[in-house]
Amino acid sequence: MAEIGFVGLGNMGRPMALRLIAAGHAVRGFDVAAPAREAAGAAGIPTVEELAATAAGAEAVFTMLPAGADVRAVYCDAGGLLAVAGPDTLLVDSSTIDLETARDVHAEASAGGIAMLDAPVSGGVGGAEAGTLTFMVGGEASDVARGEPLMAAMGRNIVHAGGPGNGQAAKMCNNMILGVSMIAVSEAFALAERVGLDAQTLFDIVSTASGQCWSLTSYCPVPGPVPSSPANRDYRAGFTAAMMLKDLRLARGAAQANGANTPLGSHAASLYEQYCADGEEGSDFSGIIRMLRGGG
Ligand code: NAD
Questions:
Q1: Which of 2, 16, 110, 287 gets the highest tally of CB atoms within 10 A of its CB?
Q2: With a 6 A CB cut-off, is 180 part of the ligand 1 pocket?
Q3: Are strands 133-138 and 121-122 parallel, antiparallel or unpaired?
Q4: Of 61, 79, 81, 77, which is closest to residue 69 (Cα–Cα)?
Q5: What are the tens digits of pLDDT across the range 193-233?
Q6: pTM value > 0.90
Q7: Residue 161, SS3?
């Protein structure tokens, strides 16, 4: 059993903290929003009223926050985790954030002699509840080894992606593929509709041909071929369009900052910008097929 702090008790953090408790760990949760603290308390997560209390004597502190600015504030502000954590506390940021912030915060942690990992996840709220998340981890191998048993309480796959920030790099590359492939699959179904090719027939052929991909076979954007996909429930998320847009913007920002040529990734970001601006932020990201069909 370990003493573990958990900061950010939202849609993902709450079920992740509950998995740690179910594995026998003593968790102290903190969220800046009182309603989130109360909801976590009601769900059975002991909470504290101050960020600093998550770190006192803790073996590890996990953070699960919305964006890079929140992570920078929680780690680097006066009274933040880097100021209050002891040398034996491992800090693990599982938020999905920009590469630059991830590497900056890592560097500041290292300068202060504090071990840190970036460990964003895929698998969504369902994966967090079931303890089947994938963790993509950046940091020193010895720190990954320390964090691994704790991440294993929340996830099924823990993959060391390399040095500081490489967990975020892996996540943004994966999700750029996902955004682009969902648009490609959606365009193919929209084209098939126009030229008189039945959706199920297209699915049956492509799922065993060279166009096969996860967006088609696990998350098909038309109702019917994959009964569990959000298309069968009027595109109720799932993985929201707003989250996909966030991840595509992170990839676009990293590509611009590092001179990578990602024209399809950038275009996917602008299409999701358009889709979200139509009031679809909360819809599942596969619902973009409705916009791509067009009206003309
Ligand atoms: P959320 O908005 O539900 O939860 C974030 C929580 O962080 C909120 O309760 C908020 O009050 C809290 N918070 C913000 N600033 C804080 C601070 N300074 N101190 C303490 N708490 C603070 O978001 P979520 O859906 O749980 O997502 C969290 C992260 O996980 C995001 O980076 C997201 O991109 C990533 N993610 C989400 C999913 C998903 O399906 N929801 C999947 C994979 C990754």
A1: 16
A2: no
A3: antiparallel
A4: 77
A5: 999 999 999 999 999 999 999 999 999 999 999 999 999 99
A6: yes
A7: strand
Classify 277 as helix, strand or coil: helix
Q: For residues 10 and 162, give the distance between their C-alpha atoms in angstroms, rounded to a whole number.
A: 28
Query: Cβ-count burial of 269 within 10 angstroms (0-12 exposed, 13-18 middle, 19+ buried)?
Result: buried
Residue 232's Cα: distance from chain center in Å?
A: 24
- Alpha carbon distance, N-terminus to C-terminus of the chain: 61
- For ligand 1, say whether the CB of 34 is within 6 Å of any of its atoms: no
- Tokens 């900061």 sit on residue: 7
Which residues have a Cβ under 8 Å from the Cβ of 185 and sit 6 or more positions away? Answer: 211, 213, 215, 216, 220, 221
Element holding 268 (H helix, E strand): helix 263-275
Catalytic residues: 171
What element of type H or E holds 217?
helix 214-217
Instruction: Decide: residue 34, CB within 10 A, 0-12 exposed, 13-18 middle, 19+ buried.
Output: exposed
